[in-house]
Write a structure and sequence with these properties.
CATH topology of the largest domain: Aminopeptidase
CATH class of the largest domain: Alpha Beta
Order of helices and strands: HHEEEHEHHEEEEEHEEEHEEHEHEH
CATH architecture of the largest domain: 3-Layer(aba) Sandwich
Shape: elongated
Number of domains: 2
Structural class: alpha/beta
Number of strands: 16
Number of helices: 10
Radius of gyration: 24 Å
Strand content: 25-35%
Helix content: 25-40%
CATH superfamily of the largest domain: Zn peptidases
């Protein structure tokens, strides 16, 4: 039997186990950096599989290590799955719905963990057939800055394990179930959080000479920022300045002393990312000076641009076509959403690819919504693809 047939057969046989693991984690979701029960569950599963592991990495992270036993030299391949859930109340009606009020696995991280455990089980069974090392990375805090990937890197654990390649798989409802998708090169945008406060004199709306109009000034600032950033970016640099919240606790006849603005800035150009930050601050100070108010800008640096290594990604595409057939391997456009896997990709040759989870003819359940759910049979494809890519790439 060919290697790919063995891997697919083992992944198919694992489906009941994958579903069990995924549903257990789905029932017991935990927020970013608080994935204590999830980490303990993963550690117990790794121990039962006879896989060496280290826990407590960057708080709740778990790292499994599978050492190949074949003669010769091989690479070290790391595979990442994120573990955290979102602050959402589930509305799927599934019998495995979350039992933790207000917390839900609405981004598929429960399935990511299940598939990485499944791929690890397959790889571990086959460890006599390869040289090299496979690192199973169960990462906390993908959904919340500064990002669990960054925190795991800062522990220094990978300085000793020395991965040559980093791989991640993420669900994508827009793709048909049991397909995979790739994009070589820059794939996902950077993401920074912007917090602005406009402070001045409040007062009765009927007495404009007694106050500075913070609501008006905040509105002026938002419009100016949108116009200036868009103009400076031009047509060649995809960028988004999105303002998601403006809060001024006044009344119909009360001008508030302070207005708060919150938003996000995203782009595919790291140099422009820094320049845009300067432009945002300069614009705020110009308006503050003209209007006689105090404007404070706090830009919280988030995730960098995710760049998929082109050579590795193209090879992964060819390998995936060999495993699944060309019709199940899709080419993906760039996305303005962000991923903290970009921290790994900035340090090591890496790629993140997508797994389709929506059955043909069924309604798509979008990520980060209370109705999100998946076609669990697609986990066979995800598990097999992870194991197949790893076992082929580890030989160099």
């Amino acid at each position: 039997m060919l290697l790919k047939d063995k891997i697919v057969s083992k992944a198919e046989a694992l489906l009941p186990e994958l579903i069990e693991v995924r549903r257990h984690i789905h029932r017991h979701p935990e927020l970013s950096y608080s994935e204590y029960e999830t980490a303990d569950y993963i550690a117990r599963r790794l121990k039962s599989l006879g896989i060496e592991y280290r826990s407590g990495v960057a708080g709740t992270g778990v790292v499994g290590i599978i050492r190949g036993e074949a003669q010769g030299s091989g690479l070290t391949v790391a595979i990442r799955a994120d573990m955290d859930a979102l602050p959402l109340t589930e509305n799927t009606g599934a019998e495995y719905s979350s039992i933790n009020t207000g917390i839900m696995h609405a981004c598929g991280h429960d399935a990511h963990v299940a598939m990485l455990l499944g791929a690890g089980e397959i790889i571990n069974i086959m460890r006599a057939t390869f040289a090299g090392t496979v690192i199973l990375v169960f990462q906390p805090g993908e959904e919340k800055a500064p990002g669990g990937a960054k925190l795991m890197l800062e522990t220094g654990i990978f300085d000793s394990l020395k991965p040559d390649i980093f791989i991640a798989q993420h669900l994508l409802p827009e793709m048909p179930a049991a397909t995979v998708g790739f994009h070589p090169g820059p794939y996902m945008a950077s993401c920074d959080e912007i917090y602005i406060t406009v402070k001045g004199r409040g007062g009765h709306a009927a007495q404009p000479s007694q106050y500075t109009d913070q609501i008006f000034i905040a509105s002026e600032l938002v419009i100016s920022l949108k116009e200036r950033v868009t103009k400076a970016a031009g047509n060649e640099t995809p960028s988004i300045l999105g303002i998601g919240r403006i809060t001024g606790m006044g009344a119909t006849n009360v001008i508030p002393e302070m207005v708060e603005i919150a938003g996000t800035f995203r782009t595919f150009d790291e140099r422009w990312r820094k320049t845009a930050g300067v432009l945002i601050r300069e614009t705020a100070q110009e308006i503050a000076a003209v209007r006689g108010v105090e404007i404070n800008v706090n830009i919280v640096e988030g995730y960098p641009v995710l760049v998929n290594d082109e050579t590795l990604t193209l090879r992964a595409i060819d390998l995936s076509k060999n495993l699944l057939g060309s019709e199940r391997v899709l080419e993906l456009p760039v996305r303005m959403s962000s991923e903290d896997f970009s921290f790994f990709a900035a340090r090591y040759p890496a790629f993140l690819y997508r797994l389709g989870i929506t059955p043909h003819g069924k309604e798509m359940k979008k990520l980060h919504t209370s109705e999100f759910d998946i076609d669990e049979s697609s986990m066979v494809t995800g598990t097999a693809t992870m194991a197949w890519l790893t076992l082929n790439l580890i030989s160099g």
